[in-house]
Amino acid sequence: MEEYEIVVIGGGASGLMAAYQAAKRGKRVLLIERNEKLGKKIYITGKGRCNFTNDCSPDEFLTNVVSNPKFLMGAIRAFPPERTLRFFEEAGMHYKIERGNRAFPISDHASDVTKVLEKACRSVGVQIHLNERVLSVRKQDTMSDVANSMFDIVTSTGRYFAYSVIIATGGVSYPTTGSTGDGYSFASSLGHSIVPTVPALVGIRLKNPLAPLSGLSLKNVALSVKEGEKVLHREFGEMLFTHSGISSPIVLTISSLINRKQIPSLSLSLDLKPALSFEQLEQRILRDFDAEKNKSVGNVFCGLLPKNLVPFVLAQAGVSPQKTVNSVTKEERKGLLFALKCFIMKPTSLLPVEEAIVTAGGVSVKEVNPKTMESKRCPHLYFCGEVLDLDALTGGFNLQIAFATGYAAGNAV
Ligand SMILES: Cc1cc2nc3c(=O)[nH]c(=O)nc-3n(C[C@H](O)[C@H](O)[C@H](O)COP(=O)(O)OP(=O)(O)OC[C@H]3O[C@@H](n4cnc5c(N)ncnc54)[C@H](O)[C@@H]3O)c2cc1C
Hints:
By secondary structure, the chain is of the alpha+beta class. The chain is 31% helix and 26% strand. The protein folds into 3 domains: 2-197 and 356-412, 3-Layer(bba) Sandwich (FAD/NAD(P)-binding domain); 204-273 and 345-350, Elongation Factor Tu (Ef-tu), domain 3; 292-341, Orthogonal Bundle (Helicase, Ruva Protein, domain 3).
């Protein structure tokens, strides 16, 4: 049975940063990772390129945080994106900034990010145990001074005592990378509340998936999500049809904003021509109809929309594709206009959390000190990264949360 000052559970982005920061301050740190290698999730981030942060100010950063931005204020100011960029640059990893201030390693290899973190940890003497899964974390039984008693950590291959523990086990998305929610049971066994987890940044299933359109990507569309007549959110950009529903960055964003709602009670409305007002679009249709009087509506609409989409839009308007344009009534024309500006899709659910980019929910931040990431329930216990009830939109913000909270925990422990 070995004794350590600090045991970090989980060798992902947040655990590596926390372990490095703690060992740099002269602490004796053991990092335990269940996988055969560190940072398994980092390898698949940003489609293998790892969008490791976003080159923006702390204030801008916080506007992209969906759950508990206020809790993150202190940690992000102490370790802002600028510090993350500098940390990697100084370690020899050059980076580039792309659309939307997204930062990537110049090599386009996510593995560079993990290499930097691992090398940094080893350079300050962090002991790393791979292929070892933590099974339980308890406070040692002592009759007196329970608050300052050591942690008793049992793993698949050993047992350790530690003065402090940092839980950095991630959420429950992409469980094949090692994040299967173990941290939630450690936290609750030590007195913490867990906010129920839901998927965030994930595709949306449709009641009647437009299966024949699977693979079709629409550029410059606007997707709104409505509750009754109230528009909850509207996003502009690209949208992709999948075999079960819809995906793409704007869909991922919307998913994170509605994941606590009753999804079947919502409706999605797609504006296929957001650059044109109803009036402008009506003029355009009138012009097209006038120029092609004897053609079928289906034919004319192929000039307005991708061919595969035309039958679905006409079906919503209740107009036969074979109908010649000169026999379209005013009422039918209104229906066509409406279908182009408000193409309705019924969502049934989000895809499961296992397929989500991030997990929303987790260890309640109400019970964690926002400056130090230390538990308010159990002294010397710390949390960082996705295990906490924190999540953000796409753009490098989630890894920045992992780095900033990892830094805070490693600096305070
Ligand atoms: C496909 C995909 C793409 C993404 N792309 C981006 C992106 O480009 N930019 C961005 O900012 N974010 C991205 N994210 C999100 C980001 O990867 C995560 O938010 C971030 O990695 C969380 O870091 P973490 O350290 O908290 O958790 P994790 O990276 O999940 O690390 C947790 C670690 O703990 C280990 N562990 C768990 N339980 C135990 C146990 N009992 N014992 C020992 N070890 C344990 C796991 O094996 C794992 O290595 C992406 C996520 C996915 C799934």
